[in-house]
Amino acid sequence: MGGRARWIRKRRGITLETAAGLAGNSKSYLSMLENGERRFERRGLVEDVARALGCSVADLTGHLLPGDQVGAEARATLPEISVALYDSDLDDVPDGPARPVDELARLAAKANEDCANCRYSVAGKGLGAVLTELHTHVVTGNEDTRRRALRALTEACLVAGGTARSWEIPTWQSMPRDGPLRLRELSKTPLSWASHR
């Protein structure tokens, strides 16, 4: 748990001194917690550190605790993401209309920012639809549309993976095994855009 706290703190750009002050602890004590020299023995301590870092208790523990509404909301976004990854394929057009690529790219970038700031419930909300609609553009769009959709799809997949990793849930098992490899291959050469139909 200390390693998670350190990772979140550094990712958010919070100094050890600032985090310790916000949590109501000394800098040396928080350092010992982060390095595993001391244990998180009280739920109140976990809650104080989570609040100081601007994340949920579940972000630190990897597990939902009773009464952790933020964690429950974040975890509730995962089934939609998993279904989108499972149902979307680069050889088959997903059913339904798709919003414009630029709008979907903005949503993927916003979700990535939210994920980077440990706001997993916000990052995951609607991400399944974004993934599905971006797949539609990758399969059906012209070369420019496909390129932009692929960039956004890659970013959205990273958010999906980051959200799942925060809960130690292997969402990537739901994605077709060759999905990430094919995304990478498609992005390498312009010729692959023409041949991939």
UniProtKB/TrEMBL annotation:
<dbReference type="InterPro" id="IPR010982">
    <property type="entry name" value="Lambda_DNA-bd_dom_sf"/>
</dbReference>
<feature type="domain" description="HTH cro/C1-type">
    <location>
        <begin position="8"/>
        <end position="60"/>
    </location>
</feature>
<protein>
    <recommendedName>
        <fullName>HTH cro/C1-type domain-containing protein</fullName>
    </recommendedName>
</protein>
<dbReference type="InterPro" id="IPR001387">
    <property type="entry name" value="Cro/C1-type_HTH"/>
</dbReference>
<dbReference type="Pfam" id="PF13560">
    <property type="entry name" value="HTH_31"/>
</dbReference>
<dbReference type="GO" id="GO:0003677">
    <property type="term" value="F:DNA binding"/>
</dbReference>
